[in-house]
Specification:
- It is a single chain.
- This protein is of the alpha+beta class and 202 residues long.
- Helix content is 22%, strand content 34%.
- The chain contains three helices and eleven strands; from the N terminus they run αβββββββββαββα.
- The longest helix has 22 residues, at 176-197.
């Protein structure tokens, strides 16, 4: 018995329904992703304080933030000090000897994971590494920026992890030269306004 002309259409329709049902029934794969920024404040001629903000830009929680590091390599030229942690997180410094740099591993405690779409501040440390050096390549691993970082969804090495660069935050404070120009403009405007208000002699 031959197939009717409507059978191929019915078969295609049933296949489409089956595919749609399978996609709806399968859990969406979670995507791990992050970004981070840092600001710096000079404490002395040879010391700076760095403050980092971590952003969870994926669809998984984040439980480990490892700054200046990729597996097997630490990038900072000098050891960090006075390390501070966000609430519920703890830090350790990693360093593998004379041919390696330094890095900071921050790990979330129970209930402190960073949720998708959220940001977390409070990652702070002092360093003798200047902002220019921090934004350059590692002296131990040329070609790799010092601010290279890694995140894991849970504890360190709990998954494949994600590598990214921590970028300097965009400053919203005007530069001194900009402030000077704004001040000069305000003075000129005030002088013109005062001249207009001064009555002219007859």
């Amino acid at each position: 018995m031959g197939l009717s002309s409507s059978s191929p259409r019915q078969a295609i329709g049933l296949a489409a329904v089956a595919i749609a049902w399978a996609c709806a029934a399968a859990p969406a794969s979670a995507a791990e992703a992050a970004s981070a920024t840092f600001t710096s404040e000079q404490l002395s001629p040879t010391s700076w304080q760095y403050s980092l903000t971590l952003n969870d830009t994926g669809t998984t929680h984040l439980g480990t933030f490892w700054f200046a590091w990729v597996p097997g390599k630490d990038f900072m030229a000098t050891a960090p000090s006075n390390i501070a942690d966000p609430s519920g997180w703890s830090a350790i410094t990693t360093h593998a000897g004379a041919t390696d740099g330094f890095a900071i591993q921050w790990k979330a405690g129970a209930g402190a994971l960073l949720a998708p779409g959220q940001s977390l501040t409070g990652f702070v440390f002092d360093s003798a590494t200047s902002p220019d050096q921090m934004m350059g390549d590692s002296v131990f691993f040329p070609g790799t920026p010092v601010t290279t970082a890694f995140v894991y969804s849970g504890a360190p090495f709990s998954d494949a992890g994600v590598q990214f660069l921590v970028e300097p935050a965009v400053s919203t404070v005007p530069e001194p030269s900009s402030l000077a120009l704004m001040g000069l403009g305000a003075l000129v405007f005030a002088a013109r306004l005062a001249r207009r208000r001064t009555p002219q002699a007859a």
